[in-house]
Amino acid sequence: MSETAQTPSEADPTGGARIVVGVDGSDHSVAALRQAARMAKLLDARVEAVTTWHYPVAMSPYTMTAEPSFEELARQTLDEALADAYDGEWPAGLTTVVKYGQPAQVLIDRSDGAEMLVVGSRGRGGFAGLLLGSVSSECAAHAKCPVLIVR
Question: What is the pTM of this model?
């Protein structure tokens, strides 16, 4: 259950302004990554790409024998989404976070002190006919900064 800060470029050691973006590998989250990079340029901020993982209800950390782990799969999903979004042209100061927890709560927590939280309107789960997913709805209602929902 770790949090990592790995980047293709050096992270801003002073912290500075940041735009948090939720990533689950869906097309909407890849679009959110692209929009976050555009907003980061305008706001002179860095992009913090966040993905989460948790154990399925039927499993626990005590019964897991899966290779790779859920955390490794989350890291792989994030890396692939970054490659799709940026095609090797990483935003300056890009940082990544892979964190254990429920997506909406992790993003709401990460929004504290951020300039903006960017999420896709729909993720990988749920009902395709809905305009907003549960994560984007929760983030819009509870984030500690402005929220941009990308379609």
Answer: 0.82
Instruction: Answer yes or no: is 48 within a domain.
Output: yes
Burial of residue 137, with CB atoms counted within 10 A of its CB: 0-12 exposed, 13-18 middle, 19 or more buried: middle
What are the angstrom distances between the C-alpha of 114 and each of 60, 86, 128?
Answer: 33, 22, 30
Residues of the chain falling short of pLDDT 50: 1-14, 126-131
The CATH number that applies at residue 59 is: 3.40.50.620
Q: What is the pLDDT of residues 21-54, one digit of tens each?
A: 999 999 999 999 999 999 999 999 999 999 999 8
